[in-house]
From TrEMBL:
This is Uncharacterized protein. Pfam families: DUF6338. The chain crosses the membrane at residues 12-28, 40-61, 81-98. The lineage of its organism: Bacteria, Pseudomonadati, Pseudomonadota, Gammaproteobacteria, Pseudomonadales. Keywords: Membrane, Transmembrane, Transmembrane helix. It comes from Pseudomonas fragi.
Amino acid sequence: MNEIASDILPVLQALLSGFVATIIFYWLSDTAKPNQFERVIQALICTGVIKLLVDGLEWLFCFFGRWYSLGQWTDNIGTTWSILMAVTIGLALAFLTQHDVLYRIARRLGFTSKASVGEWRYAFGKYPDRGIVLNMRDGRRLMGYPLAWPAEPVGGHFLMEFPSWLVDDEIMVSHGISHLLIPNSEVQWVEFLESQET
């Protein structure tokens, strides 16, 4: 048993950084999680990238160590840098995905027409300051400002601020109600209103 543990422990330690990066990314981003096999492959790729970066840092520190030394490079220092790189990469990927940075560049260059967060999230993220009209399955219409919306087109709820019902294209203000929570299962489609001056 001790032999198996001693063989597996270095492998797990080597792969830890890639798994940390992907765990942080999926915790923070609204990206749909792939199946377990794909997540393992992504973690292995992240491990390879992090290993290259840490090896580059080791070379850089050793190079500048000829003139000024901070100490000797050890396995513990390499592991610490790996974990720091994993956390940084996980946070950076989550930020870039949330703000559609990489896909925006790819769209401008003509590589893709997709958004990093899917069409549903992209539409709400692109117009965060606009009012919307929720068209219900039973024909009712609710106008307001979405403070929160579901991450996917199915499931979840809309949190509407300043909700007003539209009846025959007349606005029926809901006095005394500042927010309304509407289940997404009741919504058939969403209309985005033109931008209004404050």
